[in-house]
């Protein structure tokens, strides 16, 4: 563990938990409770990659800065946001539940705003140059230019696949020596999803001209901002400057789903965030994301998340971020590594 990382943990008032059984014993679990946040951070690192888990309740709006110059061993950083409400300010990207975030290390500073009174749960896998060289360049014969494009152009619809891997990591508690292979397998699977997603997207985009590709991005952005409204297809056709038929076909070609499914997924991600971070009743959450029918909302929520809304209410509660009885010993991170 490097000094910069320990300094970050100290600055956020994290303490190392001994005997914590919330996450796998292969990594280290930390806990913080301060004016801005309360929750856990788990870290597991090898010569090839690092896995981080954040599981916190954000009490008030908080700004975080990540200086990638302090992480010279890492070529790329990737996250799956199981629950999030905020923004990456530089470069700008909304942080939403069930979304992914991938960035190439170019020595830049990343600035984040996490909104208060919300839950922040992420699984991150950061890849070291050694893994990229041995795995992508060595085994798959990719050149540096291709690798850079993969991590700078990988688009947001790998989130569902990354989410499945993230859930497996979150719930893995086997402590045998051989089980460390699990993390290596999951890191490679995660990386494969990013690579395959990039090439599949390139294949779909290759049949679209630049103007159509931009027009479809405008349509998806409009849906992102107005998902709770009943958006007439005529309006989307005007935004794209396409016929309804062409818009339907090209949208599915680019995003691998229909506009209806895209809208429903966006609504369910927003609903899950509201269910986990507010005291709104389920019927009120349903209405806030565009559904008058409680049963219709519950059925779609189950379809896209695998659980019912009331189960989210039960599992996402503030006391779930408290230390367990096993977490008896606390100590600050060492400054000596």
Automatic annotation (TrEMBL):
Origin species: Streptococcus panodentis
Name assigned to this protein: AraC family transcriptional regulator
Alphabetic keyword roster: DNA-binding, Transcription, Transcription regulation
Cited InterPro entries: Homeodomain-like_sf, HTH_AraC, PchR_regulatory_protein, Tscrpt_reg_AraC-type_HTH
Domain named HTH araC/xylS-type: residues: 217-315
Membrane-traversing stretches: none
One Pfam family, short name: HTH_18
Spans annotated as Disordered: 313-337
